[in-house]
Amino acid sequence: MAKEGLGLEITELRLGLPGDNYSEISIWGSKNKKRVLSDMMTSSSLNTENENGVVSSAEDESLPVVKSQAVGWPPVCSYRRKKNNEEASKAIGYVKVSMDGVPYLRKIDLGSSNSYNNLATVLENLFGCIGLGVAKEGKKCEYINIIIYEDKDRDWMLVGDVPWQMFKESCKRLRIVKRSDATGFGLQRD
Amino acid sequence: MNYFPDEVIEHVFDFVTSHKDRNAISLVCKSWYKIERYSRQKVFIGNCYAINPERLLRRFPCLKSLTLKGKPHFADFNLVPHEWGGFVLPWIEALARSRVGLEELRLKRMVVTDESLELLSRSFVNFKSLVLVSCEGFTTDGLASIAANCRHLRDLDLQENEIDDHRGQWLSCFPDTCTTLVTLNFACLEGETNLVALERLVARSPNLKSLKLNRAVPLDALARLMVCAPQIVDLGVGSYENDPDSESYLKLKAAIKKCTLLRSLSGFLEAAPHCLSAFHPICHNLTSLNLSYAAEIHGSHLIKLIQHCKKLQRLWILDSIGDKGLEVVASTCKELQELRVFPSDLLGGGNTAVTEEGLVAISAGCPKLHSILYFCQQMTNAALVTVAKNCPNFIRFRLCILEPNKPDHVTSQPLDEGFGAIVKACKSLRRLSLSGLLTDQVFLYIGMYANQLEMLSIAFAGDTDKGMLYVLNGCKKMKKLEIRDSPFGDTALLADVSKYETMRSLWMSSCEVTLSGCKRLAQKAPWLNVEIINENDNNRMEENGHEGRQKVDKLYLYRTVVGTRMDAPPFVWIL
């Protein structure tokens, strides 16, 4: 990473068609069978702030992370790789959910949820309430209850602002509050 | 030696146990060949398609122990489609038909089915030992047959297999009369375990030396198990989460202290690191420690544990140990012979876990080191030169720099000189894996110096065919060569066809070899199976007018005495 900008790229040995500038690897085969390195390898877009090392934008959320890496690289056997992935996703795991007015808390497996809508549904079922929703940007918030979460920095955030994956990783606990009470948490929604 | 009766010679041969040596004595003369084959009990077959069971049994009718390997090594990294082959059933069927007295079966990278396990369990009265490594295709139902039917079962060792866990009661299928177990390893099973059946089994197995539990065995069960088995030598801990003050934990601590024969520790698939201190009392006896699946053990708890392990010979660890942690290993584990450092973050998060500094520290502190597998973020030629100087005794040297084509991070040079120093200094080197930015030069060094090299793994390396030619011409003992994503083509492939008769196999994927090159090779060498694995376009290769020059995606060739195999799937084209 430290060598960027020194113009050494021209001396670099790389595999690829002339003019190819580290285009993405096609895992499922293509007309030109060469495997070229993805821009994960040299670009600084791969840094720890990116969720899961996925370089591309929101449209790629549905694609597996493996898109930005060569098949079978690094050479870790598939059994170990599976265990590694399980560890990574296990880290998300169960979080506590409290609801205002309910004397006990619940726990949900955030790791097994796959979208905000899914989360809202799960929570609705859990607390037997309706009108639970994830506030969407720009739209008028019509729900009675809104969902907020405590992040790694111990701030209470409104669920729905950030991409799903980013939310999953930073969410430590959830709370369902009445919208009318929300102003106490510094939320400016209407 | 002609004046000794055969029985005497046979008796002498009993002392010759290694496969290499037995193979050698069988070549001395006809009479030795005959004596050797009737007295041979253990056979190792490195490629299950190089020979067939009928010929095996014709030559070695007194076979008791068989080791078989199936898929090529790169299958571990998902480069070989699942249905490629390596089926064990035909072997078991043939062995069963011949009524050979099979006692041990060891399989690696093979497809094993419940049907084959069932047949195995019913066909060999004296069957004792089943070891399955990186296999797939079976479920716990198959294990149940083995448990139920193998009356003298000694070893059931399942290492890193993909097993469909039906959450059945396979453990309770061991009859109450089964008291002969020495090894029980089911760490790779995902499902629930019948703890009562397990405890009863362990309690009635006084010879049990190796016990490796899966994730579903919690701490309190572990405590009870260890009370039943203080003679344990090799322990794989399943789940290790607990509140340190609880009764189970205290019971465990007491039980562990009594395990004075414990030498090998692994597992900790789920761990509460602060409880590790329960193991400190026996750490000074440990010779082997595998924490490579213990993602939750790191930092000071890990370091404290290692500091107690002064006699360690083998250490498998995650790179979360860091360079500083490796320095602790270097200063504590003076008996260390084998080290493996695995990546904890496969998604390329960029956390600089271990670097060349850790490797240098280990090489400096551990004079007995002979095998290393090291995944790291970066490397330098200078570091490799130092490592070569510190450790000229490497037998296995496998370095994986996570980012392909990465040069020396200080000088931006290729790592040719560094690896060159390794092969030059390590005269006993048998296995080498390369990574980082490499030109043809490194292969020149390898061809020149790596005289004992048997296995070489190349990825994203080299410039021209010359690279591969240096290796093929220079490494006289080469057995397995596997290459991916490197610019070697037909010229190198075809230069010396007879070379492949001296090798077990060659793998080339995403290189420059063409279909016509492979065809020419197959023509010149009918004793080779030349397989083209082409998952995507089955028929395109044949129909296309330019087929000759079309690049082959995956080539796998191996010597064989039994010709083309009959069980190849449609996407494998054997030329």
TrEMBL record, chain A:
Function: Aux/IAA proteins are short-lived transcriptional factors that function as repressors of early auxin response genes at low auxin concentrations.
Keyword Nucleus appears in the UniProt entry: yes
Superkingdom classification of source: Eukaryota
GO biological process: auxin-activated signaling pathway; regulation of DNA-templated transcription
Organism: Arabidopsis thaliana x Arabidopsis arenosa
Pfam family, one: AUX_IAA
Subcellular location: Nucleus
PROSITE patterns: PB1 (PS51745)
Name of protein: Auxin-responsive protein
Family named by the database record: Belongs to the Aux/IAA family.
Subunit and interaction comment: Homodimers and heterodimers.
GO cellular component terms, A-Z: nucleus
Domain named PB1: residues: 92-179
Keyword Transcription regulation: yes
Keyword vocabulary terms for this entry: Auxin signaling pathway, Nucleus, Repressor, Transcription, Transcription regulation
Automatic annotation (TrEMBL), chain B:
SMART domains xrefs: FBOX, LRR_CC
UniProt domain F-box: residue ranges: 4-45
Primary localisation category: nucleus
Pathway given in the UniProt record: Protein modification; protein ubiquitination
MF term (GO), any: auxin binding
Entry superkingdom: Eukaryota
Gene Ontology process terms (BP): auxin-activated signaling pathway; pollen maturation; SCF-dependent proteasomal ubiquitin-dependent protein catabolic process
Subcellular compartments: Nucleus
GO cellular component, one term: SCF ubiquitin ligase complex
CDD domains: F-box_AtTIR1-like
UniProt keyword list: Auxin signaling pathway, Developmental protein, Nucleus, Ubl conjugation pathway
Protein name as annotated: F-box domain
Species the sequence originates in: Arabidopsis thaliana x Arabidopsis arenosa
